[in-house]
Amino acid sequence: MDTLIGIINYVVFFAITAGTYGVLALGLNIQWGYTGLFNIGIAGFYAVGAYAAALVSGPPPSVWDGRICGGFELPFIVGLLAAAIVCGIIAFLIGIPTLRLRSDYLAIATIGIAETIRLVLKNESWLTNGVWGLQQIPSPFYDPIHGGIREFLSNNPDLPGWIHGLFSKAYNWFYLFLVLAILFVLYLIVERLVHSPWGRVLKAIREDEDAVAMSGKNTFSFKLQALVLGAMIMGIGGGLYAYYARFISPASFKPLYGTFLVWVMLILGGSGNNRGAILGSFVVWGIWAGTDFLTGYFPFSATQAASLRVIIIGVLLEVILLWRPQGLLQRERKPSKTL
Amino acid sequence: MDILSRIPQLLVYGVISGSILSLGGIGVSLTYSILGFSNFAYGDVMALGAYIALGLFTLFVSWSIPNIPLGPLSFGFGFILAAIFAIGLTAVAVVLIDRILFKRLRHYSSVILMMSSIGVALALRNILQFFWGPQPHYYIERIQIATVIPGLGIRIKPDQVFIVLVTIVLVVLVHAFLKYTKMGKAMRATADNNALARVTGINTNRVIVWTWVIGGALAATAGILAGIENKFITPELGWQMLLSIFAAVVLGGIGNPYGAIVGGMVIGIAEEVSTAFIPTGYKPAVAFIIMILMLLVKPTGLLGKRR
Amino acid sequence: MSLLTVNAVTSGYGDMEILHGVSIEVGAGEIITVIGPNGAGKSTLMKTIFGLLTPTAGQITFAEEEITGLSPNLVVRRGMGYVPQVENIFPSLTVHENLEMGAFILTDDFSGQLEEIYELFPILKDRRKQRVGKMSGGERQMVAMGRALMLDPKLLMLDEPSAALAPNLAAMIFERIVAINASGVAILIVEQNAKESLKLSDRGYVLASGRNRFEDTGENLLANEDVGQLYLGG
Q: What would the mean pLDDT of B160-187 be, rounded to a whole number?
């Protein structure tokens, strides 16, 4: 029974993380899958979103904090909105100088920007509390739900042990529901957008930007919109992470790994396909978590196991590119030069 | 006043780190101009070279191969031998990666190749971490005393002179190769116009192999020199330098190996001198800012002309 | 007995078929011009012969051996030279180095060949250390042709050799083409500047919409009124 409870709790935790990655993958899908923008700075937007949500919803700076900002204790929805808006603004500012560049330069520029964001988060303690991070980020409805459950459990001490085990973590089920609901809403919104005339222009830009430009459309403006919208969604993903983890610091956002995972998720699922983005997140996160389990059976050290996971994901990417580059859910057409 | 007095020493540090960046930049430039994509695995190939050298050296020591000291340098003949083998092995590894992977993806756009190279980068880095662990490994055996050059008030170590000399020698060799040998000219021709090179009958396949060999060898050398300069290596060493190398290449003109040398020096010096004015925590951002400025003002770079 | 035979070749780019069954012949030592309006498939024809495009139907025979779909670096070895219309030189290499690249597949000394090229284009000899990227259009065209001649081909294919050249330079190029032909090299020219080219051609073909339309001697095509109105710009 206990192992079953353990498994259920793990699955919930797994699904929350996979769902959060799904949100990120949706954002990347708009930027890369539909518009062909090579954004390697995903981790930067993710981090900014998390920090924005944390600063908006968290407690005011305590006497121990290095920071002097934030802590407005505003609700969950406001936090997510703030995350989206801040990311959108940053994406806008980044896009203006960089979107006119060729894809190689754009890629390098986005890495540099993500790096700079990471340095700012680490160094500007007045804003972010530096390496000590932000604590006590309030999960939405945590007190009522968790408190209520605890009260219920303590009022009924003679309930079987497994009910205690099952329900003590029940808040996470609520959070999972929240994440999946938000993911679903975002999915609907993005699906609507990409099947609109706006979305068709984006797809055309991806295939042949020059042709679109010659037909009179302002491709720069469309690309900027795609970048900003995608970034806003990524910001929401960051917020979802912050509210769940309740504590964030610059170390939580290993820059390249987070970014790389989302890319593999999207490519495996099928770039240009929103369901593929979500499917890819769950599959790749499953592989990531699964290898975590498997390496436990071998005499590897913790860092070795971590390295092995990355190697497996890296090899997975190459295998996909070599053998099924259109991903799992894309139609079986001959992949174009741009995938 | 205090800041100004530190500048000469920072300039010296800049030249040394700039030399290492230049070597890396030449490799990245050649790969870009001939193969058509920015190779994000380049930094981790540098780390690979550094670790193979370390591994071989440890092996040689255990085989009791004599490690004759080399004057004032902090390493001996045994290490040089390990380094040479490491450079060769790295070049072979890089060619193998191309044969197995990049060659089959060449018909895709450069963006796909870039994404693939990121996968290679992460895999390489973590393979190194798997075998050697994430902790820093000591690279040299003896602490060196720096020589003080009077008048200018700068200190310089024999190792650092070695680094700059090796860089100069390699740059001259690469230049001579590109300018005077048939394969070198064929490489320049292929970089100019890949389609025409094939039409002319140039064996572009062989050109590509040579490009990887030279690029891999330069990367390994840069990695080993970086280890000597930093005194210890970690698996992250390559990725940390990659942004600066890309900045150097963009600054000099992407696709132009000579530009990479200029760019490397400028970035190296700029990074070091900047520490006199801004917190060292932001040193990596300096390269990035210079690169962005260059892209906005003259995207073809200082010496660039193509595209 | 003809040097090059192209028989009912269909070819194109991806799903787009440009040539719908074109046939031409080039005899040893002949000068043949292919003319036609834009989009007729003239360049596509040359690229298909040289192996840059693979035909979907038809055969191509050169020096009595089939070369259909053979890759360019092998076609070059059979004795065919090709000068594309644009981007036909290596700009950052010198004149000498460009010519040297032309002889890349030769393993022995090519200085004899080099001297012949310099005789054909004396101005190149003076400029041989100059970077080709910095040279004028006419000089670049000479380098491009010289490069293709380094392997002493039996057939030289030129895609619009006088395009973007001032009339006097174009005339010079055509005059050089005659000189090259005089040494025994067959020449296949695709041209917009049809009149000048037909004047020095033994025979010519008119292509339109990817098909053969006319075939005759150079003189007759020039005199032909239909051809003149439709394709020679009156």
A: 94
- Domains of chain B as residue ranges with CATH: 2-297 (1.10.3470)
Residue A21 has pLDDT above 90, yes or no: yes
- Provide the pLDDT for residue B1: 53
pLDDT at A333: 47
Q: Please answer yes or no on whether C72 and B198 come within 8 Å at the CB atom.
A: yes
CB–CB of A40 and B118 under 8 A? Answer: yes
Contact B186 C104 (CB under 8 A): yes
Higher-confidence position of A216 and C20: C20
Rounded to an integer, the average pLDDT of B185-212 is 91
Q: What is the mean pLDDT of residues B125-152?
A: 82
- Residue C50, domain extent: 2-231
- CB of B223 closer than 8 Å to CB of B216: no
Asked if residues A131 and A249 have their Cβ atoms less than 8 Å apart, the reply is: yes
Return the minimum-mean-pLDDT range out of A111-115, A154-158, B167-171, B181-185: A154-158
C196 to chain B, minimum CA–CA distance in Å?
27
Distance CA A308, CA B126 (A): 7
Kindly give the residue spans of alpha helices, DSSP state H, lying in A99-145: 103-123, 125-128, 142
Report d(CA C158, CA B112) in Å as an integer.
36
Greatest Cα pair distance, chain C, in angstroms, is 51
Structurally, chain C folds into a number of domains equal to 1
Q: What is the CATH number of the domain that holds C187?
A: 3.40.50.300
Nearest to A49 by CA among A95, A94, A85, A93: A85
B203 min Cα distance to partner chain A (Å): 24
Test the A interface: residue of B44, B105, B111, B298 with most A CBs within 10 Å: B111
Are B91 and B52 in contact by the 8 Å Cβ rule? The answer is no
Cβ contact B214:B25 at 8 Å: no
Torsion sign (Cα): A111, A117, A118, A120? positive
Local confidence band at A334 (pLDDT 50, 70, 90 cut-offs): very low
What contacts B30, CB < 8 A, 6 or more positions away? B187, B191, B211, B214, B215, B257
Q: Is the pLDDT of residue A328 over 80?
A: yes
Winning range, highest mean pLDDT, from A143-152, A249-258, B119-128, C36-45: B119-128
- Rounded to 5°, the CA angle A241-A129-A68 comes to 115
For C74, nearest residue in chain B (alpha carbons)? B201
Do B295 and A308 lie within an 8 Å CB cutoff? no
Token output for A26: 């949706």
Least confident of A128-132, C50-54, C58-62: A128-132
Q: What is the pTM of this model?
A: 0.86
Among chain A residues, the shortest Cα distance to B287 is held by A112
Q: Do B243 and A122 touch (CB under 8 A)?
A: no
- Mean pLDDT is lowest, of B145-149, B211-215, C64-68, for B145-149
Q: Is the dihedral of CA A212, A217, A218, A223 positive or negative?
A: negative
Contact across the interface for B250 and A304, Cβ inside 8 Å: no
The letter for the amino acid at A162 is W
> What is the distance in angstroms between the Cα of A222 and the nearest Cα belonging to chain B?
20
* Nearest-by-Cβ selection for C105 from B188, B196, B201: B201
pLDDT at B155 over 90: no
Instruction: Measure CA of the first residue to CA of the last residue in chain C; give whole Å.
Output: 36
Q: Which residue numbers of C have CB closer than 8 Å to B's CBs?
A: 50, 52, 72-73, 76-77, 82, 84, 87-93, 97-98, 100-102, 104-105, 133, 147, 151
- Residues in chain B closer than 8 A to A334 (CB atoms): none
Q: Please give the Cα distance from B207 to B184 (Å, whole number).
A: 9
Q: Are strands C155-159 and C80-83 parallel, antiparallel or unpaired?
A: parallel
**Which residues does chain B have within 8 Å of residue C73's beta carbon, measured at their own beta carbons?**
198, 201-203
Q: Which single residue is written with the structure tokens 């009022």?
A: A155
